[in-house]
């Protein structure tokens, strides 16, 4: 088949690599220009560079739909478009152009976690598995019929970085399997169960701010979901922003006001957590490592020399 690829960052790079390794012909690659957005500066392997290394024509676009792009797509005469991590909506005149339509690769187990940053949101929410889905693109974002889906388990100490590496390794096999099913006429497209659908927005700085009324279990996942190189979960101490690099749920149960820097436990410092903490029946969050605004990292027991005081959402 003649294939056009739409994609960006490492997800798009892995997709293009799988297409280049297949028996099919990649006739055009469309990708976004580089961005200074915090979440687009990580996992930023270049689709454009890979395409150019293999002699594949490249178009850079923030949004699709201009006459030049549509003209180039028609000239390419694709049998299939494959998309992964394309940041804006593709119009029907693009996704319905090829004979076999457009195959979108999305890093969640659709119909759950459509939209943006699915691994981070899934880890925050305590999902037991994550994965990658290949589905047919239609007018509704990430809602088209599913062709291939693969899952991996989430371990009790896994970070978003761990899950990224585990799921990005699924892309190549999923793309290869999907192309062979489509080319052979054996593709079976399964409609998504809309009753299980969920859609998540792009993450921003506000989404990393710690709310100490969350339970310790929720906050521990929140910290793991924002592991390096992602922007870390943050709070404020004595008016200065403080990033929480690693944390655990306390063994003991601690009462008081959420956000109180309370007591040492093991290798960390317990911060009271949970809206019901006044009952004294909830565990706290054991902060293990922190990073200050200048980038210096400390063990919590080194940073919090004395107990007392509060960590707050705002200065």
TrEMBL record:
EC assignment: the record states 2.1.2.9
- Show the SUPFAM superfamilies listed in the entry: FMT C-terminal domain-like (SSF50486), Formyltransferase (SSF53328)
UniProt xrefs under CDD domains = FMT_core
Keywords of the record, alphabetical order, are:
Transferase
Kindly give the Gene3D superfamilies that the UniProt entry links to this protein.
3.40.50.12230
A Pfam family for this UniProt protein? Formyl_trans_N
User: Could you tell me which residue ranges the Formyl transferase N-terminal domain spans?
Assistant: 1-169
Please report the stretch or stretches of sequence annotated as the Formyl transferase C-terminal domain.
204-306
**Which InterPro entries does the record cross-reference, listed alphabetically?**
Formyl_trans_C, Formyl_transf_N, Formyl_transf_N_sf, Formyl_transferase-like_C_sf
On whether Nucleotide-binding is a keyword of this UniProt record, the answer is: no
Which top-level enzyme class is recorded in the Swiss-Prot or TrEMBL entry?
A: transferase
Q: Per UniProt, what is one GO molecular function of this protein?
A: methionyl-tRNA formyltransferase activity
Q: Which protein is depicted? A: Methionyl-tRNA formyltransferase
Organism from which the protein derives? Streptomyces heilongjiangensis
């Amino acid at each position: 088949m003649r294939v056009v690829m739409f994609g960006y960052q490492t997800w798009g790079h892995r997709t293009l690599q799988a297409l280049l390794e297949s028996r099919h012909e990649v006739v055009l690659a469309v990708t976004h220009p580089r961005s200074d957005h915090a979440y687009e500066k990580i996992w930023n392997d270049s689709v454009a560079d890979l395409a150019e290394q293999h002699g594949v024509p490249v178009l850079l676009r923030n949004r699709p739909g201009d006459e030049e792009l549509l003209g180039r797509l028609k000239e390419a005469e694709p049998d299939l478009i494959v998309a992964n991590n394309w940041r804006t909506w593709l119009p029907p005149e693009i996704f319905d152009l090829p004979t076999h339509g457009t195959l979108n690769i999305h890093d969640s187990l659709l119909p759950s976690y459509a939209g943006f940053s699915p691994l981070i949101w899934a880890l925050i929410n305590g999902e037991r598995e994550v994965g990658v889905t290949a589905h047919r693109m239609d007018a509704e974002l990430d809602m088209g019929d599913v062709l291939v889906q693969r899952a991996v388990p989430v371990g009790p100490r896994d970070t978003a970085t761990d899950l990224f590496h585990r799921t990005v390794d699924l892309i190549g096999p999923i793309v290869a399997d999907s192309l062979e099913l489509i080319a052979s006429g054996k593709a079976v497209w399964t409609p998504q169960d809309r009753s299980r659908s969920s859609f998540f927005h792009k993450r921003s700085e506000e989404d990393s701010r710690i709310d100490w009324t969350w339970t310790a279990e929720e906050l521990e996942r929140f910290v793991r979901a924002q592991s390096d190189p992602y922007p870390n979960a943050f709070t404020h101490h004595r008016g200065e922003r403080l990033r929480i690099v690693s944390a655990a749920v306390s063994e003991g149960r601690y009462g008081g006001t959420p956000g109180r820097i309370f007591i040492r436990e093991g290798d960390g410092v317990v911060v009271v957590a949970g809206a019901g903490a006044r009952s004294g029946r909830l565990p706290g969050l054991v902060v293990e490592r922190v990073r200050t605004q200048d980038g210096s990292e400390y063990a919590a027991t080194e940073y919090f020399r004395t107990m007392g005081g509060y960590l707050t959402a705002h200065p």
